[in-house]
Amino acid sequence: MKPIAPVFRAFYTRRHGIDAHTIERGRKQIDAALERIRAEMQPGGYLVGERFSVADLTAAALFSP
Asked: Furthest-apart CA pair in the chain: how many Å?
């Protein structure tokens, strides 16, 4: 994998339009999303009700990548 890593990185970066601007925009979007999660969190620490729910699982899944 080491020999092809630079080529793959260049291809992936170009294909997805990754540059300093898009990286910064992505960071701001993640910060905003995390802030929304914090605002929605219930006193018990979950998004809905007093126990782990589909909402918590969905938030975790969306932030995992």
From this structure: 50
Please write the tens of the pLDDT for every residue from 8-56.
Answer: 999 999 999 999 999 999 999 999 999 999 999 999 999 999 999 999 9
> How far is it, in rounded angstroms, from Cα 61 to Cα 56?
9
Q: How far apart are CA 18 and CA 27, in angstroms?
A: 13
Q: Which two tokens stand for residue 21?
A: 């601007």
Q: Exposure pattern of 2-21 as b/e (b: 16+ CB <10 Å)?
A: eeeeeeeeeeeeeeeeeeee
Predicted confidence at residue 8, as pLDDT, reads 93
Q: Give the CA radius of gyration of the chain.
A: 17
Q: For residues 26-39, b (16+ Cβ closer than 10 Å) or e, as one string? A: eeeeeeeeeeebee
